[in-house]
Amino acid sequence: MTAVNPDERPAMRHPAYASTALRGPEAMRVPVPRRGLFTDLGAPVFPALPSSADLALRGAPVPIGERILIGGQVRDAHGQPIRGALLEIWQANAAGRYRHEADTHDAPLDPGFEGRAWLRTDDQGRYALTTIRPGAYPWRNHPKAWRPAHVHFSVLTEDPAQRLVTQMYFPGDPLLALDPIFMSIPAADARARLVAALDFGLACAELALGYRFDMVLGGRAATPPDVA
User: Fold this and answer.
1) Which of 9, 150, 191, 193 is catalytic?
2) Which of the following is catalytic: 17, 127, 137, 169?
3) Which is the catalytic residue, given 98, 127, 169, 211?
4) Does residue 137 have an active-site annotation?
5) Is residue 224 part of a domain?
6) Are strands 209-212 and 215-217 parallel, antiparallel or unpaired?
7) Which end of the chain is less enclosed by CB atoms within 10 A, N or C?
């Protein structure tokens, strides 16, 4: 596997992201052998979960906000599509609030929006989902800190060492340059891989805009993982 460029990964302890001072490790990472530990355990068997490519609550009111479609391809370090990867997606609603008891942001919950979904990639490593464009929200890194709009992705393959947890951002968001999580990745070209591209090929006429977000697990074009 191609060596990882440290400029393309978020810093585990990033001063601008205040909480990493308490939870970021002080010691260097310990390499995990890809042979022996994982191969002896065998590949995981994914349960037969019902696929859900829509972050709305089924049978509930129509979600509030701008409907969007997100699609892309998951590839390995050699550029080959990864078939059957398990994707979990979660995000805030259009008002910037998660459907989670830990979210105390003073913004309304949407009775028609759950904010999470899971699905598998097809034979060509492709995925597609329907959601609502998330809103920004305050996050107390400093008194006026707001997170840019983003969607969380977790990608799990049959190789546990390949798991990716990352965030997708939207083009043209002025909060990106002010966000210490996004800016914790030193290399600008690596940060750019976290920004989705407006794609009219994925859009649905008179219904939703489309955004393309490809993810690469390893190699020189790897999608950067989430910060610690």
Assistant:
1) 150
2) 137
3) 98
4) yes
5) no
6) unpaired
7) N
pTM higher than 0.90:
no
Is the pLDDT at 125 greater than 50? The verdict is yes
225 lies in a domain? no
- How many CA atoms lie within 13 Å of 110's alpha carbon, on the beta-carbon side? 28
Please report, rounded to a whole number, the percentage of residues in the chain having pLDDT higher than 90.
70
Assigned domain for 222 exists: no
Structurally, the chain folds into a number of domains equal to 1
pLDDT in tens, 7-38: 666 766 667 776 666 666 777 666 655 554 44
Please pick, among 147, 191, 193, 211, the residue that the annotation labels catalytic.
Answer: 147
211 is catalytic: no
- The pLDDT confidence band at residue 218, using thresholds 50, 70 and 90, is very high
Is 166 part of a structural domain of the chain?
Answer: yes
Share above pLDDT 70 across residues of the chain, in percent, rounded to a whole number:
80
Range of the structural domain that residue 33 is part of:
6-217
**For the domain that residue 38 is a member of, what is the CATH number?**
2.60.130.10
